[in-house]
Amino acid sequence: MPAHGGLKIMAHGIPVRKKDTPYCGYRVIAVGDAACFGDGFTGEGLYNAIKSSIIAADCIKNSLKNSDFSFSDYFKLIEADICRDIKISLMLTKVFYSSVFLFYNLLKKNDNYFHACCRILRGERTYKEIVEKLKFIKF
Ligand SMILES: Cc1cc2nc3c(=O)[nH]c(=O)nc-3n(C[C@H](O)[C@H](O)[C@H](O)COP(=O)(O)OP(=O)(O)OC[C@H]3O[C@@H](n4cnc5c(N)ncnc54)[C@H](O)[C@@H]3O)c2cc1C
Questions:
Q1: First and final C-alpha spacing in the chain
Q2: Residue of 44, 53, 89 best suited for mutating to test ligand 1, as the one with most atoms within 8 Å of CB
Q3: CB distance 50 to 95 below 8 Å
Q4: How many other CB atoms are there within 10 angstroms of residue 16's CB atom?
Q5: Does residue 46 line the site of ligand 1, with CB under 6 A?
Q6: Does residue 40's CB lie within 6 angstroms of at least one atom of ligand 1?
Q7: Nearest CA, atom 51, ligand 1
Q8: pLDDT (tens digit, 0 to 9) for every residue of the chain, 139 residues total?
Q9: Which of 38, 83, 91, 99 has a CA positioned 20 to 30 A from the CA of residue 21?
Q10: Going by CA atoms, what residue is nearest to atom 37 of ligand 1?
């Protein structure tokens, strides 16, 4: 009997943005998976889906007040926040998943790395804050 007990295993991709994946334009705003805001490192998408929706709601309110539907405010806010974090997460993904065993041992030995990962997963810290604190990648 196979390890999965004969169950049919299915998978689904998490949309992760590339450098220039668009997420807004004139009269158009995309949030969450539609904007490819999935986190390639953790494989999660809920946090950025909710965060981008909250930012989008504010920008839509502003656009209705100002009759400006370019959504350049949404672009700027997302670039400085979610996109910046995804960029770091993709960098970490490349480093981490190329030497999983090495990092597994590092996480096992050093509580700081493990707790840093937990804080990111809980949304208490951003990738930018953690990376700056650990000082292992320079910007
Ligand atoms: C198997 C699986 C496990 C996951 N596990 C996790 C996890 O543990 N943690 C985590 O953070 N993320 C997880 N994710 C990712 C997470 O579910 C998504 O990133 C998140 O749900 C994206 O939210 P969203 O609102 O952008 O999109 P969705 O949740 O996909 O919502 C889009 C909604 O729009 C509806 N819709 C689509 N087309 C139309 C249309 N034409 N008209 C009207 N409605 C439409 C859809 O039916 C859907 O209800 C998982 C994903 C999968 C597939």
A1: 50
A2: 44
A3: no
A4: 19
A5: yes
A6: no
A7: 14
A8: 666 778 888 888 889 998 889 999 999 999 999 999 999 888 889 999 999 999 999 999 999 999 999 999 999 999 999 999 999 888 888 888 888 888 888 888 888 878 877 888 788 888 888 777 766 555 4
A9: 99
A10: 34
